[in-house]
Amino acid sequence: MISHVSLGTNDVARAKAFYDAILAVLGYRRIFDHPNAGAWGIDFPTFWVGRPFDAGRANPGNGVHVCFNAPSRDAVDEFHRVALASGGRDDGLPSLRPQYTADYYAGFVLDPDANKIEALCFLNRART
């Protein structure tokens, strides 16, 4: 359904370093690089960060967040740990979230630009 998602940043180099670190934990790699942007994925650039197209200041959207599939509960835990060590801020410790589904395990962080980022695995389902 979705080709890709893009988030704005005010510091491209900082954003690339942050996402290189946290997305590697989940098995994703940077597959596109430009002075004003970077993109990660497996075979296709699915997640992008870059300077806003209008050259204005990047601001996080209220209610917007991006969720990455994780292969395991340990990967969600590591994603959260690496995000905090790489300049992110906690926005929800890794844990089960039974209010969503019984096997929904996720952790939330704010990236250095205050975008809400989540890593999720379903404990009883294969990675999709």
Task: Provide an overview of this structure.
By secondary structure, this protein is of the alpha/beta class. It has a single domain, classed as 2,3-Dihydroxybiphenyl 1,2-Dioxygenase, domain 1, CATH 3.10.180.10. It contains 2 helices and 8 strands, in the order βαββββαβββ. The protein has a 4-stranded mixed beta sheet, covered by helices on one side. Strands 5-8-7-6 form a 4-stranded mixed beta sheet, covered by helices on one side. A hairpin with a 2-residue loop joins strand 2 and strand 3 (37-41). Helix 1 runs antiparallel to helix 2. The longest helix has 14 residues, at 12-25. The two termini are 13 Å apart.
Alpha-carbon distance between the two ends: 13 Å
Largest sheet: 4 strands, mixed
Quote the CATH topology. 2,3-Dihydroxybiphenyl 1,2-Dioxygenase, domain 1
- The total of beta strands comes to 8
Low-confidence stretches: none
Query: Percent of residues in helical segments?
Result: 10-25%
Total separate domains: 1
Q: Looking at the structure, what is the overall shape?
A: globular
Query: Roughly what fraction of the amino acids lie in strands?
Result: 35-45%
CATH-scheme architecture: Roll
Could you spell the SSE succession in H and E letters?
EHEEEEHEEE
CATH top level label: Alpha Beta
Structural classification:
alpha/beta
Our Rg estimate from Cα atoms comes to 14 Å
Strand arrangement, largest sheet?
Answer: 1-4-3-2
The pLDDT mean sits at: 93
CATH superfamily: 2,3-Dihydroxybiphenyl 1,2-Dioxygenase, domain 1
Count of alpha/pi helices: 2
